[in-house]
Structure formats: C-alpha cells, structure tokens
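Why does residue order matter? Because the sequence determines the fold. Keep that principle in mind as you read this record.
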Amino acid sequence: MENKLPTSDQNFVESLIPQRFPFVMVNSITDYSETHLVSGFEVKKENIFVQDGILQASGLVEHQAQSVALHTGYKYYLLGKEAPTGYIGAIKTFEAIQLPKLGDKLISEVSIINEMMGVTLVDIVTKLNDEVIAKSQMKTVVM
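Structure:
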C-alpha cells in the first residue's frame, strides 16, 4: 500500500491503529512528521460515543488518543514494522469547548512534546470548521 498523504482510505487508516469497528475514531491523515500529525474524523450515527446526535466528551478524548496512536502507527508503517499497542497513561488537561454533532468533520493536530522510553507527551487540538472545540495534553504509553 502506498503511503502518500493526505489519505482517507479507511482500510489503510485502520491498519495503523489497534482499534476496530465500532471503536474507530479516526478516518484520515492529512499531514505527518516525526513531531506532528493531522488526523480527521467524521461523526457518524453508529459511533458508540454519540448520544442524541451529539459526540460526547469521552468520544473527543478517544478521538484525540487515537490520533496519537495514528502517529505511532504511521511512523512504524514508514519503518516497515508493526506498531506496538499503546494506552493513555495520563490525561494532564482536557477541555471541551463544544461537542460536535452528527456529520461534523473534526480535524485534530497532534504535537509531540517529548518522547522517552515508550512514554509520549503530546498536545492535541481538535477543530471544527477551523474553530478549536477541544484541547488536551496527555501521556501515552506503548508496550
């Protein structure tokens, strides 16, 4: 499979993360570097975090965490290796300014602050129509 970006090839994106339907919370990569990734996600009715047509804050957190996993998965893909499974180690801060609705298309930007011994500290900003709707700082841990 080619690695040209941007891509919204759902099968390719899902091959980069450990989650599977109905728990997939990313569906595109538009930009990647060693310290940066931009992911996308469209809120759909079948999403398990949607209640009454609204993606809950827990869904935003999971989308952001999967965006970090996508960064790791794509990095390992470029190296020709299988990506390790990762977990949220800690959420230092999380702020949901607005909750998205069905059909909304989210764009999240992951910035790697520090990576050491399998622990990655990241800042994540999620936007809807170019407006920030959520931001967080979390640590993820790979096995």
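The longest helix spans residues 57-79.
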